[in-house]
Design goal:
Number of helices: 3
Radius of gyration: 16 Å
Order of helices and strands: EEEHHEEEHE
Structural class: alpha+beta
Distance between the termini: 28 Å
Shape: globular
CATH architecture: Roll
């Protein structure tokens, strides 16, 4: 489902989609829709890649809707970026990375990652839920989207985004340093 990256080094964070550049950073491309979707509508997303922000060098993860092709980009930390890049490249390290350790713990507790839902953006910060299936019981955990994405990629679990995360405040209200 995910194509391997061309480079295994964090320093060469190359996006996997053509056309994602500086103009797409911090922008959610939205096709015109005659009727807005309900706020609780969820869209399945695919991770397109990770690349550094041209202005700050901070890593950005790029997601795109599988059906409607709308895009989300969010700033993430360097360790989370590497945690996302490794499964995209199909790489396994000789020792477990933090996300590998967490997934092993989940599995040993007889659970699995069922899905990830990016639920909202508040104060320029995205929020997510990591939903586990623990022997038929749904367990919902608050999570940073980047950590949840890293786990979902390892488990091949769906990554969903709520309609409300695609809505951005007007440009003039953005903080000087950009979105977080």
């Amino acid at each position: 489902m995910h194509r391997p990256w061309r480079s295994a080094t964090f320093a060469l964070l190359i996006p996997m989609i053509a056309g994602v550049g500086a103009s797409a950073i911090g922008e959610a491309a939205q096709p015109p829709a005659p009727v807005p979707a309900p706020v609780d509508t969820l869209y399945e997303m695919e991770v397109m890649g990770v690349q550094p922000d041209p202005a700050s060098g901070a890593p950005l993860v790029f997601l795109r809707g599988k059906q409607d092709k709308r895009q989300l980009s969010m700033f993430i930390g360097p360790f989370e970026a590497q945690g996302i890049i490794l499964p995209l490249q199909g790489m396994r390290l000789p020792r477990p990375y933090t996300h590998d350790l967490m997934l092993e713990t989940i599995h040993r507790l007889k659970a699995k990652v069922a899905r990830v839902v990016i639920t909202e953006m508040r104060d320029n910060t995205y929020f997510a839920n990591l939903i586990l299936d623990a022997q038929g019981q749904e367990v919902i955990l608050d999570s940073r989207p980047s950590d949840a994405i890293a786990l979902a990629l390892r488990e091949n679990a769906p990554i969903l985004a709520a309609e409300r995360v695609f809505v951005r405040p007007p440009r003039e209200s953005r903080p000087e340093g950009g979105w977080r």
